[in-house]
Design a protein that fits this description.
The chain has about 325 residues and is α/β, with parallel strands linked by helices. The chain folds into 2 domains: about 5-215, 3-Layer(aba) Sandwich (Rossmann fold), CATH 3.40.50; about 220-330, ACT domain (Alpha-Beta Plaits). About 30% of the residues lie in helices and about 30% in strands. The chain has helices spanning about 45-50, 70-75, 95-105, 110-120, 135-145, 165-180, 190-195, 215-220, 235-240, 270-275, 290-300; strands spanning about 5-15, 15-30, 30-35, 60-65, 80, 150-155, 180-185, 200-205, 205-215, 220-230, 245-255, 260-265, 280-285. The strands form 3 sheets. It has a 6-stranded mixed sheet, sandwiched between helices. A hairpin with a 2-residue loop joins strand 11 and strand 12 (about 260-265). It is elongated and about 75 Å long. The structure holds adenosine-5'-triphosphate (ATP). Adenosine-5'-triphosphate (ATP) binds near residues 41, 42, 43 and 188.
Length: about 325
């Protein structure tokens, strides 16, 4: 499979301070690749190296088969870029600004700009200085998508957008992918990336700490579950649940002959279903996997914010707890 982007041992120093410490990743052509990481992790710096806005200190970068340092305007025209911070000229309308960008980026299909603006709910005839943060972001998105580039590099694309517009943006990403375009985007949060991305990379302190397929993350992700049952003691129900592989953080509440248990489950649900089938269930909730929680565990060292929750909390008249550590996805 051809790669639209690849980096090998990419490092970047600002002065004496190294902010990228050997970043390695590759993005398959025609896929959506999301890079997530906290503030200052190096997402924008990585993107700027891909676009030759800044130069790497060492390492190799290939974008659409070319070294960005040698690709020049011809390579830039094949890319749509949404910068993290947009600097817009104040005295022109959005429409005028986009026609200026069109002269640089290359031909735009007739009607395309108006169609994108309408989808995002952007008034192109307003002066850019009068636009709100969200509307500036929409203008940036139209600019990036308008010439249907082979590669879209989008730095925090949904920043400032309201939820409905975010949904529209996600639809635009899916359509671009269907048309064979490659999308490389960044975010602070996985919940956003997981909606569109095939693959997610986690960047922390200038290093890629994990690259996972979103479907793989889903399989290994932590789900929350809760059920009530009768005809069993809290102790026995806790023991039954605690013996299921991947179950952790068991809490047991026993009241008036009914036991209510909550826990987390990492991994396959079949062993859980088998164990629960032996109970007289009154109620059962198995939530959607919380990918955010799985990734927070990858991010964090023990004791840091975002570390896995501490041991089980116990409540109820007669409570017993059984706990196994939540299985963690290994960082590749
Ligand atoms: N031009 C620069 N000069 C000096 N340091 C810089 C420069 N640009 C970025 N940095 C530093 O490099 C590190 C990575 O910054 P970068 O903007 O790439 O992070 P980020 O992951 O995009 O963060 P955010 O989510 O806050 O946008 C930060 O510590 C930042 O202060």
């Amino acid at each position: 499979m051809a790669h639209a982007i690849s980096t090998r041992s990419l490092t970047k120093k600002f002065g004496r301070r190294e902010v990228l410490h050997g970043v390695d990743f590759s993005v398959e052509a025609g896929s959506v690749f999301g890079v997530i990481g906290p503030n200052g992790a190096g997402k924008t710096t990585t993107m700027r190296c891909l676009l030759d806005i800044i130069r790497p200190t060492s390492g190799e970068v290939r974008v659409l088969g070319k070294d960005p340092r040698q690709g020049g305007p011809e390579l830039r025209r094949r890319i749509g870029y949404l910068p993290g911070e947009l600097f817009l000229e104040g005295r022109v309308t959005g429409r005028k600004l986009l026609s200026h960008y069109e002269a640089i980026s290359g031909p735009v299909a007739p009607g395309r700009i108006d169609a994108l603006a309408e989808r995002l709910g952007l008034d192109l005839d307003r002066h850019t200085r009068k636009l709100s943060k969200g509307n500036k972001q929409k203008l940036g998105l139209v600019q990036a998508f308008m010439h249907s580039p082979e590669l879209l590099v989008l730095d925090e694309p949904t920043s400032g957008l309201d939820p409905l517009v975010q949904q529209e943006f996600h639809a635009m990403v899916r359509e671009a992918r269907q048309q064979g375009q490659t999308i490389f985007l960044s975010s602070h949060v996985l919940s956003e990336v997981q909606q569109t991305a095939d693959t997610v990379a986690i960047l922390r302190d200038g290093k890629i700490i994990a690259v996972e397929s979103v479907s793989g993350l889903r399989e290994g992700a932590v789900r929350h579950l809760r059920f009530s049952a009768t005809g069993i003691t809290g102790h026995d129900a806790g023991a039954l649940l605690g013996a299921v592989p991947g179950v952790g953080h068991v809490e047991v509440l026993e009241s008036n002959g009914t036991v209510t248990l909550s826990a987390t489950l990492a991994g396959a649900i079949q062993p859980l279903v088998k164990a629960l089938s032996t109970l007289q269930l009154k109620d059962l909730v198995l939530e959607e996997p919380d990918l955010e929680e799985s990734v927070l565990q990858m991010y964090s060292s023990p004791g840091e914010p975002g570390s896995p929750p501490p041991g089980p909390r116990v409540s109820g008249h007669r409570a017993s707890t059984h706990r196994k550590p939540v299985q963690q996805e290994s960082a590749k």
